[in-house]
Amino acid sequence: MLKLRGGYNMKIEGRPGGFLDKASLPETLYLPIVSRSFNFSQICTSHGQCVVAGDILAKDPDNYDIPLLSPCSGQVDLESTTGHVVLRELSGEEAGGQVNYDDAEHAHKMGSADFEQHKLLNLGAWEYVKDAYTGQTPDPLSTPQAVIVSTIRLEPFLVRGDVLLEACLQQFTRGLEHLQSLLEYQPIYLVLPKIKTDISVKIKEHIRGYAWVKTVEVPMKYPYDNFAILARHLGFKRADGSVWSLNADGVLAVDAVLTSSKPCVEKVISVAGPGAKHPLHLRLTAGYPIAEIRKRYAQKHAVAVDGGVLTGQLLTDDTKGIPAGCKGITFVPERQSREFLAFVRPGFDRQSYSGCFMSSLRGLFAERLTNSVRGEVRPCVSCNFCEDVCPAGIIPHRLHKLIYQDDIDEIERSRIDLCIECGLCSFVCPSKIELMHEFQEAKEAITKEKAAAAKKREKEQAAETE
Ligand code: SF4
Ligand code: SF4
Question: Is the C-beta atom of 97 inside 6 A of ligand 2?
């Protein structure tokens, strides 16, 4: 059993239930060129071209040429919507694809594991694989120290692993076998909930006899499913190479590609949050119009977030379709008016980490969040709540003060690099300080500063040798 620290479970209304719906083919798909994980800047198609499912529309040159695949047949429009590859005249014909992966000779020349990794990349499954520490796409032709597969997702309101696996356990275990075939002797860690659930019992039955799968049981507390935290606690060192990490949907994608050589163009996302009409899971393709999702599933006056409520990013009107790598859309009601004399209310309907509202007498209940901050940002009151919940073992309020003083050396010594950007410190802070965003910006500034210093050193060395 891993000994994990910090963490916090917030009860919030709007979690998706076990229902899985399928979105019908829309009239138009809008595939964003830039998503949170990828920048498909190399366009591989032309305006007016007819494509079929699996054709490569664009590639991300900074991420091992991860492709943006055409989800179905249609005609490409590169002119009408800035920042998107638009597909019109859609039809759900059989997948085609630009690469012939049934070519046995090709496989023989490349070596079987390399060939399969190429296949995962070109048929859309590699976008599900991330390095546990950096969250970046690992080199598809590398060998990791280990693989961590999680069957749980603890951030509200993302896709639940059990919903995906309920009907696909066989495909999941076959996907694990495929993953194992890409490795030499490295272990696969399978993350399961510590509590006994129907699906965890079934998974254990299915993997009985798989000596190369080690199970890791974690308490159902956010963010104990975080891959960086898990890799650290399993004893893997960042300097020793990548640790591949993927969720249940990634294993199913690996299976779909390596079992049937078909492009992986469908995904399941959650459409949830307190601003959703009926929180649910939805099977669709990248590029599905967000306006359509909003019309069918969101309440009036709700903002849309790409991802969960703690680490997601606000979707602006510039993004017209579901981005590649999207795990869920969270709708949060927009507060239309100020709460009158909110500060004198006893708060029977509110929760806080401090338990200071009257709601603490009510027992467990799911709160209905809105996008209101409920109060004003004020200085740190040294309550230590952020330190309590931080799963990385760092001291967020100390980092906050060092950032305020612009003391970069001390910020680094305080191990800002260990921050996994889970957002819990910001969530529990009674002073409403945007701690996580401060740390993201500080980490970025440190990386830039280091890169600039390295460049300067290089120049000086070059000048000396001349
Ligand atoms: S965002 Fe970083 S500092 Fe804040 S709780 Fe999470 S790991 Fe700790
Ligand atoms: S939770 Fe906020 S107010 Fe409390 S110590 Fe941390 S930064 Fe300061």
Answer: no
